[in-house]
Amino acid sequence: MSNATTNAETVHRVSFLDKDSLAIPILKILQADGTAYEEAVLPVIDEALAAKIHDTCVFTRVLDERMLGAQRQGRISFYMTCTGEEASIIGSTAALDDGDVILAQYREHAAIRYRGFTTEQFMNQMFSNEKDFGKGRQMPIHYGSEALNYQTISSPLATQIPQATGVAYSLKMQGKRNVAICYFGEGAASEGDFHAGLNMAAVLNSPVIFFCRNNGYAISTPTDEQFKGNGIASRGVGYGMHTIRVDGNDMLAVLAATQQARAYALDNNAPVLIEAMTYRLGAHSSSDDPSGYRSKDEEAKWQQHDPVKRFKLWMINKGWMNEQRDADLYVKYREEVLSELKVAEKIPTPHIDNIIEDVYDTPTPILKKQLADLKNHVKKYPESYPKSAGRV
Amino acid sequence: MAQMNMLQAINQALSSEMEADKKMMVFGEDVGHFGGVFRATSGLQEKFGRERCFNTPLTEQGIAGFANGLASNGMTAVAEIQFADYIFPAIDQIVNESAKFRYRSGNEFNVGGLTFRTPYGGGIAGGHYHSQSPEAYFTQTPGLKVVVPRNPEQAKGLLIASIRDKNPVIFFEPKRLYRASVGEVPEGDHVIELGKAEVIKQGTDITLLGWGAQMEILENAAEMAAKKGISCEIIDLRTLSPWDVDTVAASVKKTGRLLINHEAPLTGGFAGEIAATIQEECFLYLESPIARVCGLDTPYPLIHEKEYMPDALKTFEAIKASVKF
Ligand SMILES: Cc1ncc(C[n+]2csc(CCOP(=O)(O)OP(=O)(O)O)c2C)c(N)n1
């Protein structure tokens, strides 16, 4: 038998395994007060890396707060925050090389920010103006940047998971010392694409890091109505891959796990699964009201595990940060976000010609005819198509 | 009669059917206590319990396969796919399984008691993953019925008929009308027969045909045309599969002209099928080519949604061109 079951021991009485047979521990490095557990082994981190992580945390908090406000004022149509999950997202991205390819779900804007996405670029996407890389075609928060190795977000859930397996395989075949990282929620892990993607990665030896943000909810559905196993991590083991579970609100735990996962994936040409145990502090999106399905008490409890605060306290303990510098950074980003927002909302929308672009590499004859008809129509009724009128 | 919006009408249809049919269950993503992201199923879990109205894990493939299993074993399954854009992960279960259960088993097994409900269509600034109209993919599949209501009263009557129908039905709900469309809905058992189109306005010069949210657009276009002295007959197809050729053909024989409007892209859209059939049925009666006012052959854009839409103005222009031909 060429099967791994050959080294299984034999028993002679019926005995079943259950989910506790696969109870997977949670890695924690930082305590609530910002000091490390005594026996903890810290990740590779210096002051510059810590500062960059902290900076991204503050920017993300400010962006989330301001843009949710902008959505409520009707200035953008939709928004999603990553509030509460900053350590999961930033701690993992900070462990990567810039050449590693990120395939995100939608709540990982901190990752593209960490890579260098500018405030202006964020605003252009959210305001669907003519400078948006995505040419105004997708809803706010669907960022993407080839230069930053961050593939553009697609709304259908979990489709990026088997894609990440393919991206990683291509990195390997191109001889690059790079991995792909794939983010998804515990809800998305129920999709068929999750199972297909993990199984293929394990069997085909793809150097991919599957990063599950287990944040407790998929819209209104709590985890106990999503899965019954020992979290998502137990499935990594089931597919035969290196697996770890971390405290997703602990920046250093996420960083440490991802640094080692990356090294392992590269050295072994093998996938790794990381399950980050965190909590979605905000609503699912600006269209959702969580008061219909969870209690304020529950949210308040999780507020006490604020990942951004915990990491800041660690930096203060190290003498790498102080309250004043932290507060100044918030002020700086609030001003920056607001002023970039005002600029972006005045930039014109993409030209009407863009409507037929990128459907194919070059527009087909039918598309060209449809555009010509459309332009004639808009010329006839300019007042009904204010976004394109005057520019046909 | 009571005034309500489309969501309330759908909720009422589900509730009364669950009341009458103890074997009926309603499920999908977030449909349980939360009542669905649009609240179409709100209150059902409280009324009928968690075993009959429940959240599923987030897997459309699983939902459709599970629904096939329930229905193949004698239950009435009403599954919600949160957005029609996300029905594609379920397509194998629906197209290869739901549609063919009866045929491939020689009617040893069937999934007659199965209905998929799903919000479809644009006009809500949802971009291409919250705006698609995928009805044509399903009209291409023998064994499925495809139904689209245009207002609350129709939604209740057609949904009840879909649930009771002995075939798997895909019930597309026009989400931009969920709250916007309010009207009188008959109380109690209100059933509208599937497979029948409805002539909603009589006219003499041209037949306008559509379904779902586009019916409002056709009505607006007909009003514009009336000011130019053009009399439009308006038909709501209601069921796309099987569709009511007779009602449409009779109308076109009377008016001599046909315009079909749908939100999905033109190429491969259901309008093409209708045009081909009506051209066969009514060739000698046609006074102008059959007109199609449809979405462009592009994914549904966000910023150019208005430009993309087969709106009333585009329909009005096509009406004039057809009459002047
Ligand atoms: C295939 C598919 N089905 C349904 C949806 C609608 N939807 C968007 S987000 C979401 C919940 C996702 O939950 P999870 O993966 O846990 O991520 P979280 O939002 O908690 O970060 C759902 C059901 C979708 N986008 N794609």
Automatic annotation (TrEMBL), chain A:
GO biological process, one term: branched-chain amino acid catabolic process
SUPFAM superfamilies for the chain: Thiamin diphosphate-binding fold (THDP-binding)
InterPro entries the record matches: Alpha-ketoacid_DH_E1_comp, DH_E1, THDP-binding
Top-level taxon in the UniProt lineage: Bacteria
Cofactor requirement: thiamine diphosphate
E.C. code: 1.2.4.4
Molecular functions per Gene Ontology: branched-chain 2-oxo acid dehydrogenase activity
Reaction equation(s) it catalyzes: N(6)-[(R)-lipoyl]-L-lysyl-[protein] + 3-methyl-2-oxobutanoate + H(+) = N(6)-[(R)-S(8)-2-methylpropanoyldihydrolipoyl]-L-lysyl-[protein] + CO2
Keywords: Oxidoreductase, Thiamine pyrophosphate
Metal-binding recorded as keyword: no
Enzyme class: oxidoreductase
All residue ranges annotated as the Dehydrogenase E1 component domain in the record: 56-352
Function text: The branched-chain alpha-keto dehydrogenase complex catalyzes the overall conversion of alpha-keto acids to acyl-CoA and CO(2). It contains multiple copies of three enzymatic components: branched-chain alpha-keto acid decarboxylase (E1), lipoamide acyltransferase (E2) and lipoamide dehydrogenase (E3).
Record-stated family: Belongs to the BCKDHA family.
PANTHER family reported for this sequence: 2-OXOISOVALERATE DEHYDROGENASE SUBUNIT ALPHA, MITOCHONDRIAL
Protein name: 2-oxoisovalerate dehydrogenase subunit alpha
From TrEMBL, chain B:
Any Pfam family: Transket_pyr
SMART domains: Transket_pyr (SM00861)
Cofactor(s) the protein needs: thiamine diphosphate
Keywords: Oxidoreductase, Thiamine pyrophosphate
Biological-process GO terms, alphabetical: branched-chain amino acid catabolic process; response to nutrient
SUPFAM superfamilies per UniProt: Thiamin diphosphate-binding fold (THDP-binding), TK C-terminal domain-like
Domain Transketolase-like pyrimidine-binding: 4-180
UniProt name for this protein: 2-oxoisovalerate dehydrogenase subunit beta
GO molecular function, one term: branched-chain 2-oxo acid dehydrogenase activity
Function statement: The branched-chain alpha-keto dehydrogenase complex catalyzes the overall conversion of alpha-keto acids to acyl-CoA and CO(2). It contains multiple copies of three enzymatic components: branched-chain alpha-keto acid decarboxylase (E1), lipoamide acyltransferase (E2) and lipoamide dehydrogenase (E3).
EC number, UniProt record: 1.2.4.4
